[in-house]
Every structure is written in structure tokens, then in C-alpha cells.
Amino acid sequence: MEIQLDVSMLEPCEPLEQVLEAIGKLASGDYLRVFHRREPHLLYPMLEKCGFSWQCLDDSSGGYEIYIWKSGDVTAARDVAAATP
């Protein structure tokens, strides 16, 4: 199931904190779709260390959509693949 989180209007540090809080609540089969105004490079090593996979896409408005799911979650990975171009 897709869970959406829009952090595009938040000040620095808040997007990172909200994403980390949200991924802690992901159930099996869930993935997080994050809307951000910039690519969160600092987030990626944290995701990897915590056992998450991600895919980042540029959106049509100049922002970014980041899809995050638990590594090894086949259902979530399949759903992300179906939801992205």
C-alpha cells in the first residue's frame, strides 16, 4: 500500500526527521512515496543502513518523488515498479 508524505514545504532537517519517522511505521507490503523539493542525498546512507531500498524520480514540477520500501519486501518492490515509469 502506498503511503504519501509531502515534505516539500518544510525547512531543512524536518523532511529528514519526518521520513525517518514514517519509514519506522511501514508494514510489510507498504512503501512510502515522498514529495520533496530537492533530492535528499543525506537520507540515502541512512536508508541503506536501516535496511531500506529507494528510487528517486524527478517530477514534472521540478521536485522529486522518492519511493522507499523495506529491502527484500517483494510486494512493496513490485508495487513501486508498477507505480513508476
TrEMBL record:
Residues 5-70 form the DUF2249 domain. It comes from Sedimenticola thiotaurini. This is DUF2249 domain-containing protein. It holds the Pfam family DUF2249. It comes from the Bacteria. InterPro entries: DUF2249, TusA-like_sf.
